[in-house]
Fold this sequence. Notes:
Rossmann fold; binds alpha-D-glucopyranose; 12 strands; alpha/beta; four-stranded antiparallel sheet
Amino acid sequence: MHNRSSTAIEMNTQTKCYIVTDLDNTLVGNTIATQEFNQKILNCGDRVGLIYATGRSYESAKQLQTTETLLEPQYWITGVGSEIYQNGILDSSWSEHLKAQWHREKIHTIAAEFPELLPQPNSSQNEFKISFYLHDNNAKEILSQLRDRITTAGFAAQVIYSSNEDLDILPVRCDKGLALRHLMTALKINNANTIVCGDSGNDIGLFKQDTLGIIVNNAQTELLNWYKDRGGDMIYYANNDHAAGILEGLDRLKPGFFTLD
Ligand code: GLC
Ligand code: MG
């Protein structure tokens, strides 16, 4: 358990915990629970590091931070992992890393051939993220055709579908979890001291990183299906929704840790 005489290095690699949470419908969704979460994190002081991982653009996530009174995290993973920000500054080493095998224009042209895909607003697009809305009973089939078309044309991309409506096409090296792994490597964070929290398809990448995880009860079917097929003991499926589910999960995964001080 927490040892106040730990050295700074030990704190970072052994006893400091990082909470990596999605925003919409995970940390955000129940104002009272979100504020309770904030208070718990503040009480933990330096023992806990906070990272947000969202599908939103940085600008949109910052707006949400204001309207929902969210704490300032140490890092922002935005645009489904297509961008990493610290203190308002874009991590350009991550952007460089994403360029491998990424042919945005060509992949966009292929996707635009599917009439069922409706472009999201420009503010949701970036150099490493092409986003559409897809509302169709045949979404599964359309996704599989899109993946096939990209592959047979000789390209590679991640095609991520969330909440039965959002379709993100990203570089192969990009998703929330891969962006998190980049930070974990840089910060020398252990899997066992990292807890990811999410509710939908774009969070699956986080849960694939073999860290601890919390799926909130209000999760979408695509994440629950993934959890049934591949989720292991490290992931806790909470009985509560939104931030109340996160608090429940933290208590289960790290008993006592978040109630000290
Ligand atoms: C957010 C983004 C959107 C994305 C969705 C799922 O809503 O604004 O562009 O498609 O998350 O990742
Ligand atoms: Mg979400």
